[in-house]
Design goal:
heterodimer, A: mainly beta, four-stranded antiparallel beta sheet, 0% helix, B: mainly beta, six-stranded mixed beta sheet, 11 strands, globular
Chain lengths: 113, 112
């Protein structure tokens, strides 16, 4: 089944404790992206990757890192999480960039206390 | 800056009626628009898209209309069903070919 998977689905952590949210797709997509979703703000792009070893900032990249060492995986790293990073996070992938249908993962709900 | 917004945050529709969800965008250079549906507890799901060289595009029970003159986008759902209950987002490809901007969403609820 073609899909985007994220882990963990739920995470509660404390300020400053490094964490990684994994994202994997099995569709051989070149483009992958991370979004955060907050009430009243819709989805905002954090980082995206056009292909392996190519990543770039979205609209809200502060406090986040990503890597794209292989095509299928695009982990999101929070080196020192803060409470304002409490949010619902979605990973997405598409064949080639945003002019193609994006497939979204199920989401990761992160709470930073 | 670029922005994509929605006229109404909530919409209540009688089951069987048609639904119309509206969206305004600000970047007249945008050439690609998408509608997503997000059900509770799930990620957004692609519904339909339209490129700027078109005014209308139809899918199964859904139609997207694009009015570039007034920078307006709408999603029409025919014969609305309970399964259509969700939040609907319009999205716009930004000035960068790699970025997309989402609106804040409209919640569609269905009255029996």
């Amino acid at each position: 089944e073609a899909q985007v998977t994220q882990n963990p689905r739920y995470l509660i952590t404390v300020t400053g404790k490094k964490l990684t949210v994994t994202c994997s797709q099995n569709m051989n997509h070149e483009y992958m992206s991370w979004y955060r979703q907050d009430p009243g703000l819709g989805l905002r792009q954090i980082y995206y990757s056009m292909n392996v070893e190519v990543t770039d900032k979205g609209d809200v990249p502060e406090g986040y890192k990503v890597s794209r060492k292989e095509k299928r995986n695009f982990p999101l790293i929070l080196e020192s999480p803060s409470p304002n990073q409490t949010s619902l996070y979605f990973c997405a992938s598409s064949l080639q960039g945003v002019s193609y249908e994006q497939y979204f993962g199920p989401g990761t709900r992160l709470t930073v206390t | 800056g670029e922005s994509v917004g929605l006229h109404l945050p909530t919409l209540s529709v009688q089951e069987g009626d048609n639904s119309i969800i509206n969206c305004a965008y600000s970047n007249s250079a945008s050439d690609y628009f998408i509608w997503y549906k997000q059900e509770s507890g799930k990620g957004p799901q692609f519904i339909i898209d339209i490129r700027s060289n078109m005014d209308k595009r139809q899918g199964q029970r859904v139609t997207v209309l694009l009015n570039k003159t007034v920078k307006h986008l709408s999603l029409q759902i025919a014969a609305t069903q309970p399964g259509d209950s969700a939040v609907y987002f319009c999205a716009e490809k930004g000035s960068s070919a790699s970025k997309i901007i989402f609106g804040s969403g409209t919640r569609l609820s269905i009255r029996p």
